[in-house]
Structure formats: C-alpha cells, structure tokens
Amino acid sequence: MGTSCPSGFSPDQARSGMYKLEIEVKRGHNLAVRDRGGTSDPYVKFKLAGKEVFRSKIIHKNLNPVWDEKTTLIIDSLNEPLYVKVFDYDFGLQDDFMGSAFLYLESLEHCVCVCVCVAQQQQSIRLSELHRKAQLWRGIVSIALIEGRNLMPMDPNGLSDPYVKFRLGPQKYKSKTLSPQWREQFDLHLYEETGGVLDITVWDKDTGRRDDFIGRYQLDLSTLAKEQTHHLELPLEESRGFVVLLVTLTASAAVSIADLSVTPLDDPQERREILQRYSFFNLKDVGIVQVKVMRAEGLMAADVTGKSDPFCVLELNNDRLQTHTVYKNLNPEWNKVFTFNVKDIHSVLEVTVFDEDRDRSADFLGKVAIPLLNVRNGEQKGYLLKNKELTAPTKGCIYLEIDVIYNAVKAALRTVVPAEQKYIEEEPKVSKQLLQQNFNRVKRCIMVLISWGTFINSSRMHTHTHISLVMLFCFLLAVCGGGSMDGMFEWEVDEDDKEEKDSEPKGFMDKLYAIQDVFISVQNALDEVASFGERVKNTFNWTVPFLSWLAITALCLATFLLYLIPLRYLVLAWGVNKFTKKLRDPYMIDNNELLDFLSRVPSDVQVMQYHELKVDPGQSPSKRRRTNLS
C-alpha cells in the first residue's frame, strides 16, 4: 500500500490535517479453505473508524487470488487503525471469515509502499454494510450485449441458462434474459478513481441453488479508442466460448456538485450558452437538469436521541449523486447544486432522504419522485416526503429548486426508442396484496372493453338512431376509402420447446422455488397487461400533454403522407425497412416504436406515485418559529 501527503509537512502536522491514503490490493497466498469443494471465493474489506471504506471484487474458486485493485481515501486523522478483513463469499448465507489484520497508519512512512500480511484468526465477526458515496464520472461506456457463442453446457440435459454480469468499479449490470441471444444495450459511467477495467462474468442460472460459474473476461477500456464503436469477440477465461459485445467510449459533459454560490444557470452568460447548446439547431444532446437541494424540515427521528443524521440522494435513471450528512438535525440545510445530463425527457428525478448509521445500512426517511416534464423552472417548492412505495405520505418536507433545459425535437425522437432500464432493481417478491391489486387493474381494463362492446352492439341494434347512422357512415368511408393494413403489428408467440424431464425427482425446495417463480410470473404478467391498458387510456386522457401532442403530430404527418403517397407504397417501404434491418445491421437491437412510445406514458400506479402532495404552510417548522417569535 502507498501513502502520500503534502510536501513540506511533518508527520505530526499531517496527522492534524487532511491526508490521502492510497491502497492497492495485490493478491492473496495460501488462503484458508472455506467451501466444501476445497476452495474459497475470497474478497477483502477495509474498515476505518468502524466504517467500511472499500471492498474488493470477489475472486471465485481460488486460494491464491489476484485482485490488483486500487482506491484512494481522504482521511483527517492517523490515529484510527485500518482494519483489513478477508471473507469467503457465500450466496444467500453469512460470508465466512478467513482472517484479519490491523494496520496502524501512524507507523507508515510517507510516499512509500508497505506490504501487509493478513494472518488467519478464528473469531466471529458481525458483518456490516455502509452506503458508499457516489462519484463524478468523466465518460460513458455504451455496451451492446449481443450474444454468446460455444458456451459450456452446465445442466444435465447438455444445455445452460446463461446470463452475464458486468462490473465497472462500483457499478453492476446483469442481463435480463437467459438466452445466449441477449441483444441488450446499457451504459456505464467511467470514473476517475476506479480505473478502466470492465469485469465480465458469465453464469448459468439454477433455480433453488447457487448459480454455476461459466467463465469471465476482464476488458481494459484504456486500450480502446474513444468515440468509436468496437466490435469485440471476447474469449472466456477458465472456460470455452465467446461473448460478443459492441463497446463505445464517449466523453461526457461531467455532472457536478457545487454550492449555491456557484450555480451555472444563475450566470446569464452561461445560461445563454446552455440554451444555445440545446436549441433546435443542435440535436446532439437532449438537455440538462439543475437541482438545488435547499433544506428539509420536520424529518423523522431515526436515532435513540430523538435526532437524525440526514443526507439526500438524487437519482436520474442510473445517475446517482448525494449530499453531505448533517449530523443530529431534523431540519438540515444542505444548500447544494447538482447538475445532470438528460438522456430522456420522460425520466423521473427521485430524491430520497436517508439517516446515516455508522454500524449498519442507512435508514430510510422519505422519498419523492418528480417527472422532468412536470418541473416549473426556477420555482422553489416544498415536496412532502412519501414512503418507499410512494403511495402514502411520511413525516417531513424537502425544498428543491429545479431547472430543466432540453431540445424538444431531440426529446420527441428519443421517445420512440427503448427507454433506459435501471440497473439496480429490487428482486420481485410474491405479494398477495400486489397480486390482488394487479388483478383488479386488469379487471377494470376488461370492464372498459366490455362497455365499448356494449356500446357498439347498441349502435348496431339502433338503440340510438343518430349514433348508428354516424357509425355506418364511418364504416362505409373506411371500407370504400382505402385498403386495410394487415400485418401492421407483429405478434410473436414464443413457444417453449418441450424439454425432457430430468430422471431425478425434484426436491421439496426445488418445488417451492418453482411455485414461487410461477406466482411472480403471473404477478408480473398481470401488471404488464394492466399497465398497457392504462397507458393507452392515459394517452387519450392527456395525462402527459407532451406525449398526447406528440401522438397528434404523428397522426397529422401520417395523414399528410397518405394524402401525398398511395398507401401501398408506404406499406411497401415499411415492409422493406423491417425485413432488411438485420441485413443492414446484423447486431441491431430490435424494437417496436409504438410500444416504446407507450412505455413513456405513466400507468395509473405511476400517476399516483408521481402525484405531488400539497404542503401545509402552517406545519412548516420555520413558519412556526416565525409565529412564536412574533
């Protein structure tokens, strides 16, 4: 490990000031066996003053692991020793302790390397986790996961259910499907401190037990040219087979965290430059959002002392930044300015308030979700905090000022491409209440269809003569005025191949996991069906005016094209485009523009989650203080 301090400072002076500690985890040698297979899955944890400050990656099935990871810590005291612990990772169980050592920072010489040995000890250690603060990124790594080739079969039937995990510093991504034709696209942030090594691992999904490791590859991003798309066929180490990727490195307008005294949009000259950057004449970027986090009032007391140590986390899709912690305060003032790049104007800004705990994970205090299209620029507003599900209010209010500048044309074009998926998502769980809720939502959609069917039937039976005549006229106009467009939508029915059942009978836990998977599948299917119907309804209800106007504009353009160009030519052009996509770009990720458009329309559940609760001025602590003083 190496350390460094400002030149000209003695060790005594450095102990009382800021100090930079550089740690490099090299490797382990002859570590203890903790798994039944005679190996271990070791990783290293570093703790300082009772807090976890760094955790290495996991090296699977290796007693002589090589990590080669670096991290840099800023500390203000050398009195606290650095506690180094080695664990064996166990999926779903408590990790096994392998050894530990104390490193006393006062004993280190400045700017030299020191080797530290971790000795084996037999003791019981209680694991603790701590929220790691987000960092600012300097670039974006765009990855298109295409397919796997010649992967090793891991199941008794000679097949596998492969998925891929990506890790770049603290970021992780897991592919969504088990087919080797993944066709998924996602972006990762490239940080200054975490280096540029992309760790790729391939796993075989096994229900009810630990997933099988197939292979891995570590890609050094520094060897790739920037602003170019690289087609890579990566051979897996410790296994056979390849993973096919498309990787693009792009520079990013860096996100920023600043005080209120340094606000980009408050400077008239800088504001004009930003407005020009996102004008109609520049279609490169969608936009920018600036968030001023002022303060919070009346927060929940999470500590036994009746106070809290609150900090605020801001998330926009997969971009995550956070404020500093204000200790022992229920009415904290942060006064920070955060700047994000907007990739999709339909994104939702999530602001969550946590209570920092030294010995365990942070406690949830409240949350609010704000769609960017609902923002009123330059208006400082108080938002009542809600619970984790955003369904009911909780204690406290947070004051924000948000400015959004975006290119309307670019935002409209991005509406008909697949939306960015969040990498960190909670695993779905079986919930009787959620299952009943989704069933009722589907039932309401079906009742709407039944009411429409009843209306059409009543018009056919001439219950209302004038309505029947109007519908007859529309029917004749549609039949005589033009041809039908058959095959406008492609309905793909995935028929699962019937696989032979294993000769071995399934155990009780396997059956239990299978039943749980069935319930989760039914629960998710009901949610998708209900959400689709609600999104169609909300499009016509003008729930999001931007999307409704966009739909009207698209219909007007389609009408104008039909007036100028015969229908058969448009159908021919559409068909040629659809059928030649794979020829023009074999690695393209197919999408449906109509479904991508509807995915931007919120469902009824999301409308309720995004609903802004009104703040009662009389309940504000600052208001009460002013009243008491008067």
Mean pLDDT: 76
User: Which architecture of the largest domain would the CATH scheme give at its second level?
Assistant: Sandwich
Tally of contiguous helical segments: 12
**Structural classification:** alpha+beta
Kindly state the number of beta strands: 24
**Count of all domains:** 4
Tell me what portion of residues adopts beta-strand conformation: 25-35%
- Give the overall shape, derived from the CA principal axes: globular
Per the CATH scheme, the topology name of the largest domain is Immunoglobulin-like
Low-confidence stretches: 1-17, 121-135, 482-505, 624-630
Describe the structure.
There is one protein chain. The longest helix is centred in the last third of the chain and has 33 residues, at 508-540. It contains 12 helices and 24 strands. It has 4 domains: 2-107, C2 domain (Immunoglobulin-like, Sandwich); 137-251, C2 domain (Immunoglobulin-like); 257-418, Immunoglobulin-like; 436-485 and 507-610, no CATH class. Strands 16-20-17-24-23 form a 5-stranded antiparallel sheet, with helices on one face. The protein has a 4-stranded antiparallel sheet with strand order 4-3-6-7, with no helix packed on it. A 4-stranded antiparallel sheet has the order 11-8-15-14, with no helix packed on it. Helix content is 26%, strand content 30%. The chain has 630 residues and is an alpha+beta fold. The chain has helices at residues 11-16, 268-277, 408-414, 432-460, 465-481, 508-540, 545-564, 567-579, 581-584, 593-600, 604-610, 621-629; strands at residues 2-4, 19-27, 42-48, 51-55, 66-75, 82-88, 96-103, 137-149, 162-168, 171-174, 184-191, 197-204, 212-220, 229-235, 242-251, 256-259, 287-297, 310-316, 319-322, 333-342, 348-355, 363-371, 379-386, 393-406. The chain is globular, with a radius of gyration of 29 Å. Residues 1-118, 121-234, 268-385 form the C2 domain. Belongs to the MCTP family. Its main location: membrane.
